[in-house]
Amino acid sequence: MEKVRNRGDRTREWCGALRGIAILVVITHNFLHVYQGILKENEQTFEVGKVQAYLDVLMHPGLDVVAQLVCFLVPYIMAVYLFLSGYGLVRSYENQGRHRGERALTFCVRHYLKLLKLVFPAIVMAGVLYALHSDLGWHFTWKRAVLQSLFVTNYFPYATYLYIYVPWWFLGMILQIYVIYRLVMYAPPTASVWRRYVLPVGIGVACCLLMRCISPEGLLQQWLHYNCVGHMLGFVGGVITARCEHDVATGRGSRVAGGVWTVVSLDTIKRHDWRLDLLLVVVALAAMLSFQLTFDTWVWIDIPGMVGGCALVRLLGRRLLVPLAWLGKLSAAIYIIHPFLRKALIFQLGNMWLAFSVFVVLTMLAAMAYQWILQRYPNRI
């Protein structure tokens, strides 16, 4: 029993640290990418001009090359969040059976309310800021507040004009994926191979092929990326990984399941080889850099993002793992609260790096305060 508990503790640490790395990269991107001279990423659409600017940075790197690449590659860190979401749902609702048998409607309402609880205090804060200082809260309207509370803004073209804060688009998209998981992908361990593996992989591949078949720069491509189609591959990766882990642990895993465990597992059923993990990180980074060059590979870039993230976190020592895991516990609060401070600080200080440093420190403090509010926010409300 002690061995199982320790294994679970290590898995939670790895998942938390991966969230911590991801949120650090996300807030770095969201703060720096609006400054002049910073690379503009191919996030929702694929534009050849942005690829050329990216190649220029690679061919003539400057002192800020790391910041440039972080800002350009960060949209694909979303694959890590989706991977962890799929991974966690399978472990909670299928492998461990904690909520096994829960009705689909109950599942969907539960996750809607969890997201609403996360964002609702921030919506109220935005409304208060607007009432006190309309010049600071120009992006708040009651229509946007209602749409954000219902998580339906993603369904509208040009959705960025309807958000209170643009980064919150992720919440509506993840709710869509939760619903699809419960209605389509959910499968207990006794289900057939077709239902557990073939169906989710087919959905992920179909979404990528759909994106490949439409214009890389058009409004439809952008709309798909603001919704679940543009991010389904990362979620499917997490679902498949968790199911492979279960099969390996119960002795029913095939060679394919064992291979998936070796590459992207966050469980310690068997011992991971640090040399292989280091190789995976290098290969994944090279793949992420090269997948940017063509539209054909760009639609599949979530794959190296998942592989590299999981291998990287398995390489971390305790000195990095513990603080990053703590940061991962704050990741949801950081994601919700950081747009407030970005709006207040961006371009306000003459030096970009000074402004960014102040932004990071204040974001961490504000996130801890917001987490305190969430922990004392009555669930029944």
Structure description:
The protein is mainly alpha-helical and 381 residues long. The chain has one domain. The protein has 17 helices and no strands. Helix 16 packs across helix 17.
Concise structural overview:
By secondary structure, this protein is mostly helical.
Which terms summarize this structure?
mainly alpha, disordered N terminus, 17 helices, 381 residues
Oligomer: single chain
Low-confidence blocks of residues:
1-5
| Helix and strand run | HHHHHHHHHHHHHHHHH
Number of domains: 1
Query: How many strand units?
Result: 0
Radius of gyration: 21 Å
Distance between the termini: 38 Å
The best one-word shape is: globular
What is the beta-strand fraction? under 5%
Give the helix level as a range of percent.
Answer: over 70%
Structural class: mainly alpha
Separate helix tally: 17
Topology:
Layout: H1 2-32, H2 48-59, H3 65-73, H4 78-95, H5 104-132, H6 142-150, H7 169-185, H8 193-212, H9 219-225, H10 232-249, H11 255-264, H12 274-291, H13 295-298, H14 302-315, H15 318-329, H16 331-345, H17 352-375
Helix pairs in contact: 1-3, 1-4, 1-14, 1-15, 1-16, 1-17, 4-10, 4-14, 5-6, 5-7, 5-16, 8-10, 10-11, 12-14, 16-17
